[in-house]
Amino acid sequence: MGIxxxxxxIYTPENIITNSFLExxxxxxxxxxxxxxxxxxxxxxxxxxIREMGSLAAKKLLDQELITDQKIDEIIFATxxxxxxxxxxxxxxxxxxxxxxxxxxxxxxTAGCTGLIYxxxxxxxxxxxEPNLKKTLVxxxxxxxxxxxxxxxxxxxxFGDGAGAYLxxxxxxxxxxxxxxxxxxxxxxxxxFPSGELSLENKLGVKLxxxxxIEYNQIYLKQxxxxxxxxxxxxxAVPIMExxxxxxxxxxxxxxxxxxxxxxxxxxxxxIDSAKRKLEKNGFKGIIYTNLEKYGNTSTASVPxxxxxxxxxxxxxxxxxxxxxxxxxxxxxxxxxxxxI
Length: 341
Known about the structure:
The chain is an alpha/beta fold. It has a single domain, classed as Peroxisomal Thiolase, Chain A, domain 1 (3-Layer(aba) Sandwich), CATH 3.40.47.10. It is built from nine helices and 15 strands. The strands form four sheets. Strands 1, 2, 5, 6, 7 and 8 form a six-stranded mixed beta sheet that branches. It has a five-stranded mixed beta sheet with strand order 9-15-14-12-13, sandwiched between helices. Strand 10 (198-211) and strand 11 (214-228) form a beta hairpin. Helix 3 (50-62) crosses helix 4 and helix 6 (230-249) runs parallel beside helix 7. The protein is globular, with a radius of gyration of 19 Å. The two termini are 14 Å apart.
């Protein structure tokens, strides 16, 4: 009997922030943004918070034909907790009620953009240790635009909103999840970024809100905003993505040549392309799939959002060997190796 990782269910907001809109409000250009990140547009949630988006992703997952018995034993919600004044009680508890599983064990986890990878590992370990856990729901949801300072041209073009969910379930005659690895390196910050190279800073910044007369309206507001030393984050991310892929294959019967697809955290196309070149030199012949050009960096939600599209396009098929890999604030990193169901 294996513990499988289902195909994902996702939720992405309808409202889109295009590069052409950003050209109107900051000193930037579509060409510069694409060259720096590969991102052409990103979604913004103007009326739904993290827990609401996570619940919609979970409901979409549970509506899939492959899932019949919808009794969930445990729910783990991975997020960076960016909803103002909604950090207590847990987002997972809210989801439990929304999907009619009020007695499910519910908890949240925070590990930067790697949070959902951590949640999958934790859920898997819990199910191995406790045979009475039959089904665990993991959710990754973010509303990063709510913490983006749109006067900061160095990173405001990166972030988007969305949510994704997976189900871990015991199934006979299925290989399922094969291995999970996580790791970290303390982000001690620097003189210009004393709280960390990727962290929050309370300051006066520009937020986007909806306005019926125009595309988006800008307001000045003092609150916590994302700040990032892009150079330092890039230096950490490039080698660690390759490292995570190789590490999750260790002590298994598989190697890079066996992997059909890698779903990386969608942070920056330059990071993904660099890791791709290095992995291909070491024997990887599969596909690295991302759709960050349409969604931007949705943090914990980026892997399921990309995986959902890959399944729908039949880029990923049943029985393919898949690796999810991510890195995030903290700094954190992690990977899951599994057989697609």
